[in-house]
Amino acid sequence: MAAWRPTRLLLAAGAVLVLAEAWFVVGLTRPTPQLVSWLAMPPAVGFAVLACWTTSAAPDLAPGARRFWRHIGIGMAVIGLGGVSNAFDTILGYVAPQHVSTLTSAIYMAGLLFILWGLLRIPGAHRSRGEWLRFGLDTATVLVTVITFAWHFVFQHWERWSGGNTTGTWAVLSIVATGAVCVFAFVKVAFTGTGPLDRPSLYLLALAGGAGATGGALTPLLTDRPYLNGTPVVLPLTCFILCLAADRQRRAAGVEPAAAVRRERRPFVPYLAVFATGMLLLADAADQGDDVFGVACGTVVLVLLVAARQAAALRDNAVLVDTLDSRLRELEEYQQTLAWQATHDALTGLANRRLLMQYTGETLRTGPVAVALIDVDDFKGINDDLGHAVGDALLSAVAARLSQLRPDGGLVARLGGDEYALVFRTDDEARARQVLAELTTELRRPLDAAGHALVVEASIGLALSGQERQERQERHERHERQERQERHEQQEQQDPVTAEELLRRADVAMYEAKAQGKGRRVTYEPALDQHSAEQARTAADLRVALDTGQLRLHYQPIVRLSDAQTVAVEALVRWHHPERGMIRPDLFIPAAERTGLIVPVGQWVLTEACRQAARWRDELGALEYVSVNVSPRQLREAGFAAQVQATLLRFGLHPRHLTVEVTETAVFDGGSGLEELHQLKRLGVNVALDDFGTGHSSLGLLRTCPVDLLKVDKSFIDNITDQGERSVIAEALIGISDGLRLRAVAEGVETQAQADVLLRLGYRYAQGYHFGRPMPAEDLPAHLNAAHPAAVG
């Protein structure tokens, strides 16, 4: 509510009141002209009407309150007309002093009826039949008290006040009517509430009516001063209080009124009425003798004791009701908590899958929608290396960053683990791509996770609800015009894409992004469904292949360039499907990575390679080691080094006869994978960095990673004979390996010319089709005994 500051209207009404009261005080000391005493009445009424009308026009006022203050303004305007009529009657001598004519009384009554009608239209709280009964009894108690006091102070002096004529009678009735409106206003506020009205404003309004009734009741005190009249004094006071009430309501506009309660807001009012009546009885009985006074005292005491007992019972009931209300509020809060938990993620506070599907479905009905699935890359490594507390903090930080970047009207949800979803309205794919590009950029800024500044990458899949229309059109264009039109009509009758379908498409695109590498963004297209289906089929078949022995190991020779002698082999997994034939590794390895089958596949490769290496050691005795590729996911598995050690012990193979090949991306970020490599190094197992130069290529990695051997990627070997940039890089890499006392193996050597250049640059080991393709284990002895092309210096 706005702070109180006197307005010009209040100041003007206050000035009129001061002048009216000052002139009245002067009239108490000496005779004054009657006309002057009535001059303050019209502006006072005008200010009151203006205050009510200004308040009714307040912009934030509720319709019910606006209507009420208009009624009050109209009622005061009518009362003002009655005041003008009263002035004419008095000044022109049409009625006796302090009396009113029938016309003036009728006008006053009409104004009071307008006010009473406004009070009756104030909406109250819904009440039960029992509550209405209690309200009626309380109202009757107050009214009986008021009537008793009115009888004592007014009606028993009727003849003396009215002077035995009609004008005096109307004066008395006007006073009673004003008091009745005052009582009704107070009872209305006390027992039924104020609805949209400001409660203190209505109390001020009741006070204004009370001031009018009280001032009128004191009129008999002026019978010895016929030049004075109570109306010019009382009406400015009533109008000023009414201006205060209107000002209070105007300042309270827009503020929510206090909620209505089930029990009465003022339970003490009936008891106060009983107490006041008892005191009046004692005051009258004091003059009637001791016997009457004693009976009156006993009666009053008994009534007060019964009232006290009733009040105590009501207090206990109130405590019980308060306790029940408290329990109900707790139950409601608990229900709200359960409802929130059912639709939100407990860790991040984001929407969960249930709310996401509901929101997406509702949004789809109103327009095109874009759904993006966001998967945090390498979160498992962070969780394993830094602990679950840091992992949870990172998930919360990512959630906060996504919420900040959410387009207006969009929704961010956490689907579980390190997977999030972003839904927003758009039919523009370029706009959706721009949003995701900004999101990727912002995610790459360091995130504070429990004191750790972490940088994350995210793989994102995007699907738009408008794509199905384009897909339909593409299908239609492959057929004749008539057939295209018929199918188009059939498609238009079908339901549009659902929230579940849109999320599935985003999921397909997201997994395609992960398959392409870290930090990629892929938009769904129909071809991905076929690819995804093939991936799912491949993964399912791969599970069977593991159990039915469909996997095979082929071995590619690693030769010494000086004499082309095979010194080691690299184990490469092959899959011979009974129906689909030979399936290339680049087709089934991504499916294994995606489904987690790469872990059991990798363990099988390690076991079979060690088994074969032990057999060759006994039969051939010429190979230095067998090299096995290990995926990043397999390397991060807890206890990987222990599994390698157990496998070596199982076949009695010395650790130096095994080399573990890992990619740069598997160990670039450090963590548990790097620790596993250190454990392997302590066991005596050799570590090779595969495809060196194609990943992060940080030279610091050679210092932190326990590397024994660098495998230079084929891309640097292909054009090495051209003496261009590739040759320079290959020469630099051999210099680095020699300087760090590492062995280097050149991959992908396909010609003798490449082998000659490599030897001239300082390379001592190589592998490639020039020296031998991957072959089954049983073909390797024959290959070793055959003549091989010799490198020349």
Question: How is this structure best described in words?
Answer:
The structure is a single chain. The chain has 793 residues and is of the alpha/beta class. The protein is built from 30 helices and 17 strands. The strands form 3 sheets. It has an 8-stranded mixed β-barrel, surrounded by 5 helices. Helix 6 (129-153) runs parallel beside helix 11 (268-285) and helix 11 runs antiparallel to helix 12 (290-343). The two termini are 95 Å apart. Mean pLDDT is 80; it is low at 257-266, 469-476 and 488-495.
Briefly say what this structure is:
The protein is an alpha/beta fold and 793 residues long. It is elongated and about 145 Å long.
Query: What percentage of residues falls in helices of 4 or more residues?
Result: 55-70%
Radius of gyration: 48 Å
Count the DSSP helices. 30
State which percent range the strand residues make up: 5-15%
Structural class: alpha/beta
Characterize the biggest β-sheet. Answer: 8 strands, mixed, barrel
Number of strands: 17
Report mean pLDDT, rounded to a whole number: 80
Sequence stretches where pLDDT stays below 50 over 5 or more residues: 257-266, 469-476, 488-495
Order of strands across the widest beta sheet? Answer: 8-9-11-12-13-14-15-16
Inertia-based shape: elongated
What is the terminal-to-terminal distance? 95 Å
Question: What key attributes describe this structure?
Answer:
793 residues; alpha/beta
Indicate the topology:
Layout: H1 8-29, H2 34-38, H3 41-56, H4 63-91, H5 102-120, H6 129-153, H7 158-162, H8 166-192, H9 199-217, H10 231-251, H11 268-285, H12 290-343, H13 353-364, E1 369-376, H14 379-386, H15 388-405, E2 411-416, E3 419-425, H16 429-443, E4 447-449, E5 452-454, E6 458-464, H17 467-476, H18 481-493, H19 499-516, E7 521-523, H20 526-548, E8 551-560, E9 565-577, E10 581-583, H21 585-595, H22 598-619, E11 625-629, H23 632-635, H24 640-651, E12 658-663, H25 664-667, H26 672-683, E13 686-692, H27 699-704, E14 709-712, H28 725-739, E15 743-746, H29 752-761, E16 765-766, E17 775-776, H30 780-785
Helix pairs in contact: 1-3, 1-10, 3-4, 3-10, 4-5, 4-10, 5-8, 6-8, 6-11, 8-9, 9-10, 11-12, 14-15, 15-16, 17-18, 20-21, 22-24, 24-26
